[in-house]
Amino acid sequence: xxxxQIIRNTSETQIKLSLNLDEVSRGKIDTGSGFLNHMxxxxxxxxxFTLNVESHGDTYVDMHHSIEDIAICLGEAFIKCLxxxxxxxxxxxxxxxxxxxxxxxxxxxxxxxxxxxNAKLPNSTVGAENMPVSLFExxxxxxxxxxxxxxxxxxxxxxxNHHCLEAIFKAFARAVAMAVAPSRNVKGVPSSKxxx
Length: 196
Hints:
196 residues, alpha+beta, Ribosomal Protein S5, domain 2, 4-stranded mixed beta sheet, ImidazoleglycerP_deHydtase_CS, histidine biosynthesis, IGPD_sf
């Protein structure tokens, strides 16, 4: 079983996160933001994973510290779950349409950090709590850095922020599912170097 538990306590947040890449179950997600809860639930459902998140943070300020630290924990969980990455596909990519929106996510669990965010959202906030959409670029950048991956996120078009971000999270989930699946061709580490 590829699973990990991460605990992160700072003066700004206290987070417990667990990830299981091989179990399809609906974990409990409580981030302090209803919209972020919804996006992370989409990630676990469309990835075929089990994710549990319990976050207590200084949300009376805003969601910045919480969203960053949750992303750090999720990135660290990927590192623990995948280990030396023997036998996985390594690369993943997916297009997802969500009503009028279309997103694509491409990624590589390469042990190298490369982040591209080409997603101009139509409005500046999203959700009942009016979360700044800029926090989602920060979420994926922090996740990318802590998972030591290449991550390219593109939004081709869309008129509704909810639909746009939902397409991105679903595409990310399915790209991850592809990348962590057993390799059809490579039995060892998926690199000509023999290591990542």
